[in-house]
TrEMBL record:
Pfam short name (any one): BcrAD_BadFG
CDD domains from the UniProt entry: ASKHA_NBD_eukNAGK-like (cd24007)
Gene Ontology MF term list: kinase activity
Lineage start: Bacteria, Bacillati, Bacillota, Tissierellia, Tissierellales
Domain ATPase BadF/BadG/BcrA/BcrD type: 4-303
UniProt entry keywords in alphabetical sequence: Kinase, Transferase
Name of the protein in question: N-acetylglucosamine kinase
Listed Gene3D superfamilies: 3.30.420.40
Amino acid sequence: MIFLGIDGGGTRTEFIIIDENGKILGHTTKATCHYKQTSLQNFKEIIIDGVNEVCRKADTTISQIDYSFIGIPGYGEILDDVEKMDLIINDIFKQNSFECANDAVAAWAGSLACKPGINIVAGTGAIGFGMNKNGKLHRAGGWGYFCGDEGSAYWLGKKAIEIFSKEADGRLEQTQLYDIFKSKLNIQNDFDLIDLIYTTYEMKRDKIAELAIILHEAAEVGDKFAIDAFSQSAYEHYLTIKALIEKLDFLSEEKVLVSYSGGVFNSGRYILEPLKSYLDNLNINIELINPILTPVAGAALYAYKIFTREDNLKIVETLLEEEVKWRIRY
């Protein structure tokens, strides 16, 4: 038996094929398939190219895949668009068995290896997803960069721009971030920032999100505004987790597993320490754990679980070993 997992995101789309033992047969990465950032035509082309390439690497074909799980950014939010994406996927996979869902489900499946609990995604965008032991599902956040995505890399990139502009014109005292910003972005005159964002970056979501890296660099040298921005991001994720706990009816005596995925968490202690502190204020037994698998491996594992209806610890162990070997961990 073989299973396909697809994890779409705001920056890239990953494809992986595994067998029933968790051995990785093929893996590839493409650009984002997020149709709102690009187009439905781009979504179709990325999925087709990625599926064909990962099948070649795995020496198989779509028709030989037993089940696929496809995590799609933005899926489930606009009914007309969901119908259009379903038609595209149906045309690609034909009669093969598959399930489509929001990419937050793939992130949960990876971080918690399909166990009950909550996962926070903080990449280009931000969203939370959880499942309780009875199979009840719920999501929070993920309203998009204009309506929400609080705590995301885009949100942090906007914070970096805000801090720099305020330090540039005197609304805030100048800190290390001001000099790092000018150096990294080759800004000669402070107002060059406007042309950079509007003309060079074209206000693109993924380009703004990259500025979160500068914020992290500033935090590393002790910039108080950068450190506070990560604390604010952590608070937004805390609110998402709190909402999910309430919606999923976790009992006060029940241990709730919480994990995370996405590039924002590469900032380590600047995001995780305040998040742990906020979670300690909740009157519930929460265990914040490191992600077990990547989202794309989670997607493949979820495809296996949906098809076989089995809980196989061995396949998780093998996937862990395989991910290290294939060097596809985020």
